[in-house]
């Protein structure tokens, strides 16, 4: 048996695996709400959709028209982007927090409506939204297929200097969403996954 020595591990590969894990996780975020407000936000008259696919904060006031919900409004500078709200809701979905009353589970539940416009964002969300530009997101089709295309802009926030280092060589990452439980169990498990288990191409998702 080969003796694996952790001090000889390639940290560049470890960091790359962590990056891809974050991208895979983010593909489960409700990213279509960047362009369309949630029903909960419409009900509460807190409109977050802004069409922005990069950065965590608005750098200027922006006028936006949510055509699906027939809403026109101005979203103020300095508030969280809808992109950041969606990513924060996803990244914090399964987190457990220690409080004076004990341990509590996150209540964000992968719902961007649960992240307010002025909510403090995790460093993880800030770094992700300032590094990966969302180029295209395909929400679930009738077959249960969903995929998201990101551009890795190489922008990382230096925690010590609070400055960004930019890599001019952009890279593109395609994240294809896996099985969703329990939201899409019929399409993913009883259709696509069953076909894969028997060595059959899941035609509907493949075509999408």
Which helices and strands occur, and which strands form pairs?
Blueprint: H1 11-26, H2 39-44, E1 62-66, E2 71-75, H3 82-91, E3 96-99, E4 102-105, H4 123-129, E5 132-138, E6 147-152, E7 156-157, E8 164-165, E9 171-176, H5 185-197, H6 203-207
Antiparallel strand pairs: 1-2, 3-4, 5-6, 6-9, 7-8
Helix pairs in contact: 3-4
Describe this structure in words.
The protein is globular and about 50 Å long. The chain has helices at 11-26, 39-44, 82-91, 123-129, 185-197, 203-207; strands spanning 62-66, 71-75, 96-99, 102-105, 132-138, 147-152, 156-157, 164-165, 171-176. Helix 3 (82-91) packs across helix 4 (123-129). It is an alpha+beta fold. Helices cover 27% and strands 20% of the residues. It contains six helices and nine strands. The strands form four sheets. It has a three-stranded antiparallel sheet, with no helix packed on it. Strand 1 (62-66) and strand 2 form a beta hairpin. The longest helix has 16 residues, at 11-26.
Overall pLDDT score: 84
Task: Report strand order across the widest sheet.
Answer: 5-6-9
Point out poorly predicted stretches.
none
Question: Can you give the helix content as a percent range?
Answer: 25-40%
What is the number of beta strands? 9
- Helix tally equals 6
Distance between the termini: 44 Å
The largest β sheet comes out as: 3 strands, antiparallel
Order of helices and strands: HHEEHEEHEEEEEHH
Radius of gyration: 19 Å
Strand percentage lies at: 15-25%
**Morphology call:** globular
Which structural class do the helices and strands define? alpha+beta
